[in-house]
Each structure stands twice: as structure tokens, then as C-alpha cells.
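Journal club prep — side note

Before the paper discussion, L.F. wants everyone to see what a predicted structure for a comparable chain looks like in C-alpha cell form. Sequence:
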Amino acid sequence: MEPTILNLPGYRVLAARESEREYHVKVETKSPVGLCPACLCVEAVGHGRVEILVHDLPIHGKQVGVYVDARRLRCQGCGKTFMETLPGVNDARRMTQRLVKWVGERSLRHTFTSIAEEIGVAEGTIRNVFAAHAAALEHTVKFQTPHWMGIDEIHIIRRPRAVISNLKNNTAVNMLPDRDKKTVARYLAGLPGRADVQYVAIDMWVPYHEAVREVLPDAIVVVDKFHVQRLGNMALDEFRRSLGRVDKADPARKKAAGVKKDLSLFRKRERDLNDRERLLLSGWLNNIPELAEAYRLKEAYFDIYEAGSQAEAAVRFDTWAKSIGPEHRAAFAPTLSAWRNWQPQILAYFDHRITNAFTESLNSLIRSINRRGRGHSFEVLRTLVLYSKGAHRIETKRRPFARQGWDMETFDRAPPTESAYTGMLGRATLMRAPPMASEVEEVNYGVDIARLVAMLESGEI
């Protein structure tokens, strides 16, 4: 091995040996630094040597072990002994700084075990390096607090996780390890400028509502439209299933079992059906009158969202609820219960028309990234989604500010006046302040889903 192949500044290669799987390189520092960590004295003398193993970047597919012939020093001032500083080495992990950076970035695309085998360290070391890398990214990258916030969840890696989005800018801003009230409230409490949050769209999950009410009392909570509408299709499905359970011998009811193959037709709005679909659906409805009535109730339920105001929507719902007959009431009971428990938040949509529809697209993307990763931990998946370089929507804004010492209002707005020296100088012209200065500010709105999709398709993540 050539002495220069290590290319590690600050070190002199003393010897090198190559084996089947490793390079072993013995080095010493070129310019030892002897600053005493106890008293900061620079007067120190040699006090023996210790060989320290430092891991470095792989070379030619082989592990690299750097054996530093490090000096022990004794302080002339306080008498304490200490080791010389090793340039370019991460003291906490006995790795070069460049290896630490490489591991942090590589751990987003490879398993911890494979990286550990590649460089010759324990898997726990790789896990710790990744955790520090992720923490550094989170500390460095700051997303603007959404004015219109969405809170939804995705069931992934064995449990539901809360997903936070910016609904005004269609970006993702966080993924939380669970959807518990304590976790969500802690996140909301730590938001800079949380008083600027105007609206929060949620599904009908009580812990979300309680966390928002406690931490963001001035924000308007809106139950997501599509979660409410979904209840109509769920009720129709439940009624269809109940037909077969009630009396399997009844030919008309038995036919309901066959609906399953055309279930998508029942879930679509009637106005969105094409001629062929409308014909197929009418065949089912004409043969099973009870199912036809359930479909009518579902369509009327969706029509509530055609209302132009809260008051009109409330009237439409009351009229619809009263039209449900005894035979269908059990299937639509969860829908009625949801409105009874969440009506103020459901009706809030008609004054503040925000939805979590964007978050559903985000959840699909997260699942795709997770499938491609084949075994990512939640922490790795979260870092990939939130901190992939090039995936953020960033705007550069100029924020005006007045120069110190100038009263901008006074100088800009004062009208010209007659000078005492009019006869000598004519009408005086007031001196005005120079143009208002500005400072450049970058605003990061979060993860742009279109960019993240492009990166996923190109193989960047």
C-alpha cells in the first residue's frame, strides 16, 4: 500500500499491510498538539506512547484500520497526563470524521448490519452514528410552522404514526412515532410561532382534538371532509354485508353477496358513473330494493357537502338523518354517532374549507419508500422522508428593515417646508432617508411531495 493512499491530512504513514479483507495502516501525527485539557497550558512533555485503532473509509472494498502511534503528554503546569489531539478523528467513536459523515449518509440507504460489516464495527455503533446524523439534520433544517395544519396518521412499521402537513403549501413537516395525545401535544408545544396556526384539520381521533385544544386554543379545528364522507360508504358496505347475514335463504338477499365484484360502482358518486357503470349499478339496485334505498341514503349523505354554509349543512344533515328507516338505521348508526360527537368540528369545514386530502397522497408515498427500503426502522424512514436533500420547498424572501438611527416615518412623510434661508437658497428640499434596506430570508415550507416522488422514481432514495 502506497504511503499516500490514505490521504488523511495531519498524519504521516509509517507502515502499511494488506490482508484479504483489510488494510492496516500505522501512522503518527505530523504536528502534535499538546494543549492541556485541565489547565489549557501549552507546555507539555512526552510521557510515552499508546497505539489507538481508528476506523476509516473502506478502500477497494476492504476495511481500513488506522493505528495511530499516539503520544501521551504530561502538563508542565499542573502535572496532569493526557493524550495528544488526533486531527480529523471523532473521539467519541474512534472513527475519522469523514467516515462518520459517510456512515450517516449511507445508513439512509443501506441496513445498519451491512454497513457495520463493510467497515468492521459493531451494528450498535452504526445505529448511534445514524442517530447523531438524524439529530444534526433535524437541528439544521427548520420548517416553517404551518398556518393551516393537517394531522393524520399512517399505519406503518407495526403501529399508527401521526403525520403533520402544511395544507396551505402542500408539504410534509413531520412524522411522529405514534399518535398519542402526549406525543402530539409535545410536538405542538415546541413549535416556534405556534400562535400563528389558524386551522388544524384532523380525523375523528379524540387525542388529536384534545392536544390541539390544550396547546393551540385559538386554532379552529376542522374535521376532514373525506373522513366524514367515508362513513357513508362504510355504512353502505355494512348494510350490503348484513343482507346475507339476515336470511341467506332469501334469493333477493342472497344476490347481495355478488355485489362485492362491483363494489367500486356503489362507492362512486352516481354523477361520476359512465353509461356502462350506470347500467350495471341499476341492475343490482332494481333487483335488491333494500340495497337501492341504502345507496340512495349514501348519495343523499354525500350531498350534505354541497351546502354553502354551516346552517344549510346542519339542516341537510337533520333532514337526511330523519329519512333513515328502521331497516337501515343499524348500518348508519356509526355515521349518526360521529355527527353527534363531532358536529361543531364537522360543520367548521363549511366556513373554512380545508381538507387532509393532500396527506393521503403523502401517506401513499411514505408506504412506497418503506416498501423500497425493505426493513427500514421508523427513525430511518422518517429521516428519508423529511430530510432528503433536494426535496424541500424553499422560498427566498426579502424582509425590509429600517437602518438604525433613521426615523423612516418622519423622513418619508414630512412635507416640504419653507426654509429660513429661502431668500438665499429658494425653497429648501428636505433630506430624505436612503431607501429602506432589506435582509434575505429563506423559508422552508417542508417536503414537496412532487419532488420526493421524482427522487424515488429516479432511485435517489
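L.F.'s comment for the group: The first helix runs from residue 97 to 106. Keep this in mind when we get to the figures.
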